[in-house]
Specification:
The complex is a heterodimer of chains A (about 160) and B (about 500).
Chain A: H1 14-34, H2 40-66, H3 82-118, H4 126-150
Chain B: H1 4-10, H2 13-31, H3 37-48, H4 53-78, H5 87-137, H6 140-151, H7 154-157, H8 162-176, E1 179-180, E2 187-188, H9 202-220, H10 237-246, H11 248-263, H12 268-283, H13 295-318, H14 325-337, H15 345-348, H16 350-384, H17 387-406, H18 409-427, H19 432-459, H20 462-467, H21 470-501
Antiparallel strand pairs in B: 1-2
Helix pairs in contact in B: 1-16, 2-4, 2-16, 3-4, 3-14, 4-5, 4-13, 4-14, 4-16, 5-10, 5-11, 5-13, 5-16, 6-19, 6-21, 8-19, 9-17, 9-18, 9-19, 11-12, 11-13, 12-13, 17-18
The chains are: A mainly alpha (about 160), B mainly alpha (about 500).
Chain lengths: ~160, ~500
């Protein structure tokens, strides 16, 4: 008789099923939104896609309920820091949102330095303390020059400085 | 074959310098996520106004070809396609880099890009006028089937769960329909938001879905970004040449696919790369290794996307219909120069056209040393730069690159949001590639479908419209092959094994 070791025990793909349920919700909202469209050319394609998405999601949920598998998503590395992950995303979002107010140079420099601090795992030596901020400034100014002066991209100056 | 005088004209020191500078500039711009080949050409076009037309074309062609190749660096080393043409390069390029073969992948990409570029230019030189007719033979329904053919790749990209791949593709297709509908101009899925009126910008979405999840994981642990199995020495050129020689048919086939897709107006390098990848995977003896760091995958996509450069010039020069978006910019520059494109261009303005084509050969050949050197340093930088510098640099590049596409802060917010969604979906087992595939092919598929449907309904030949045209039938045959050949092959191999065992 064969006994399963704990690693071999199959679990339900809860993550996959929850996301499938969310996708069903998205598809239903999309279907509802298509009812406001007048022209058949506009709604035929998204409606067909939304219906297909609901069918696939229901199949996925049913399949996993009948034949549980452990799913095949990425597994977090041991000791991975959620705080750093969230901080990175928040920093990127906040600095982007502040770009029209503070301008590209200020918000870009703030974002660069903040993300550097978030990604810093090495100890702060005197060399790093001196050189890293200078490198940050050089990068931001360099990119500003490349995009604003050479590629003529109208980077925001910032309402504070206008 | 056009005379040697045009070749000599292309080989003047001024033209060689232009080709070299163009390739370097294009490669650097293309390697930055968010900066596309179209942007590289558009930004540098004003420089060409004071030049003779042939030299101007050589410079623009060199920038274009360099930018398409440059997109491979970010795709291989950062899992972020530098240009949309390099989407399929991420499928095997990044896994190669992760296992410690990033330098080999970059060299392979360079060799493949040069091969593809040369094949595309050879078609342009020898077969431009007859091939231009192919572009005219493609109607909306053919584009629709071509997009469906691209979507068949979902089965390859679903990493063991086809249903999740299909759901991801549907999500991508829905994302592609946000904004103003192209044909009926209805506003769809904006829910009153002004920001979403312009739709989801494809390159921003690519950057978000591919790059942001990498950054989120990169910042969470002190581990190195890429595994380094050996100290980088040289270009690993001999190894790459041996692999390229072994898979020479893959290179040639993918280059021809790239050229043919490049001829089709609006299709572009991303479709060429996806179709070539799909074919390479179908034909390969190592089908199951695709997506896990298979060199054949990198070769297929990189040769195909660079072949679109020569292919795209065929309808541009012969018919005045741009094959790819950068061709549209180049066409505009040619009109400013007073060059009238059309069927008579090759006979009446032979000196311009043939000098340019030889210049394109020159630029493509120059891409080999330039690409190898820049690629080597790009790889060295990525593996030696400390994480505290790498993460903010890449994050910063994604933000400024996304902003520069439409000068929109909202696009950057959407890019980051899509990145977070992509990361969450990755955790639940949904690969980002089917979503991207849906997003890119959705617009082409919908436009082709609706136009074909309208024409078919008006002529009361709906069935014939979709299933009665020779090119459509050929593409449908390829779709069936792509979907069912792996099953038939697996069954055939199983039966052979059984016979041998008996």
């Amino acid at each position: 008789m064969q006994t399963d070791t704990p690693e071999e025990v199959v679990r339900r793909d809860v993550g996959g099923m929850v996301t499938a349920a969310v996708f069903i919700l998205i598809a239903v909202i999309a279907l509802w939104d298509t009812t406001t469209m007048v022209d058949a050319d506009s709604y035929v394609f998204p409606r067909a896609v939304a219906i297909a998405m609901i069918v696939f999601c229901l199949l996925l949920i049913a399949w996993d309920l009948m034949r549980p598998t452990s799913g095949n998503g990425d597994v977090s590395a041991p000791g991975a820091s959620t705080v750093r992950r969230v901080s990175l995303v928040v920093t990127m979002l906040v600095s982007t949102a502040l770009m029209p107010v503070l301008g590209f140079l200020v918000s870009g420099f703030a974002a660069f330095v903040s993300i550097m601090l978030i990604a810093m795992y090495d100890p702060w030596t005197r060399f790093r303390t001196l050189v890293y901020p200078l490198v940050c400034a050089a990068f931001v100014v360099g990119f500003y020059f490349l995009f604003a002066e050479l590629l003529l991209v109208p980077l925001p100056i910032g309402s504070l400085f206008e | 074959m056009p005379g040697i005088e045009y070749l000599l004209e292309a080989l003047t020191p001024f033209n060689i310098m232009l080709a070299l500078c163009g390739v370097i500039a294009g490669t650097v711009i293309g390697s930055l996520p968010g900066l596309t080949a179209t942007m590289a050409v558009a930004v540098l076009v004003p420089i060409t106004f004071s030049m003779p037309p042939a030299s101007a074309l050589i410079l623009m062609g060199a920038i274009y070809t360099g930018a398409i190749y440059g997109g491979a660096y970010a795709a291989i080393l950062l899992n972020t396609p530098g240009t949309p043409s390099a989407i399929a390069t991420t499928f095997d390029g990044f896994p190669m880099a992760k296992r410690g073969d990033g330098d080999l992948a970059v060299t392979l990409a360079c060799l493949a890009s040069v091969t593809g570029g040369l094949v595309g230019a050879a078609f342009l030189l020898g077969l431009a006028p007859p091939l231009a007719k192919v572009a005219l033979a493609f109607g909306p329904v053919e584009y629709f089937w071509l997009a469906v053919f691209g979507l068949t790749l979902i089965s390859a990209l679903s990493e063991g769960n086809l249903l999740k791949g299909l759901i991801g593709a549907c999500f991508g297709l829905l994302l592609s329909s946000i904004g103003i509908a192209e044909i009926s101009a209805d506003v769809r899925f904006t829910f009153g938001s002004q920001v979403l009126l312009g739709g989801i910008e494809t390159v921003s979405a690519l950057i978000g879905l591919y790059c942001v999840p990498v950054l989120i994981d990169l910042v969470a642990t002190p581990d190195k970004h890429l595994k380094v199995t050996h100290q980088p020495k040289g270009f690993r050129l001999m190894e790459a040449l041996a692999i390229s020689w072994k898979h020479k048919f893959n290179l040639i086939r993918s280059s021809v696919i790239g050229t043919l897709v490049g001829i089709l107006p609006g299709a572009g390098g991303s479709i060429a790369g996806l179709v070539a990848y799909s074919e390479a995977r179908r034909v390969s003896k190592r089908t199951e290794h695709f997506g896990t760091g298979e060199p054949e995958g990198v070769q297929a996509t990189e040769s195909a996307n660079n072949a679109t450069v020569g292919g795209g010039f065929i309808p541009t020069l012969v018919l005045g219909i741009p094959g790819t978006p950068p061709d549209a910019v180049i066409l505009g520059a040619l009109l400013i120069q007073g060059v009238r494109t059309g069927p008579n261009l090759f006979t009446q303005e032979g000196s311009i056209v043939y000098t340019f084509i030889y210049g394109l050969f020159l630029a493509t050949i120059l891409m080999l040393p330039v690409g190898l050197v820049i690629g080597r340093y790009a790889y060295k930088i990525i593996i030696t730069v400390p994480k505290a510098m790498l993460v903010p640099t890449v994050a910063f590049m994604t933000m400024i690159g996304t902003f520069s596409i439409r000068n929109s802060v909202s696009d950057v917010i959407i890019m980051i949001t899509l990145g977070v969604i992509g990361w969450v979906l990755n955790r639940a087992g949904y690969s980002p590639s089917p979503i991207v595939l849906g997003l890119i092919l959705g617009r082409i598929a919908e436009q082709g479908f609706v136009q074909a449907w309208t024409i078919g309904a008006a002529t009361e030949e709906l069935g014939l419209m979709f299933f009665g045209r020779p090119i459509s039938l050929a593409i449908i045959a390829f779709i069936c092959l792509s979907l069912f050949y792996p099953l038939v092959r697996a069954r055939w191999i199983g039966r052979r094994r059984k016979v041998r065992a008996d």
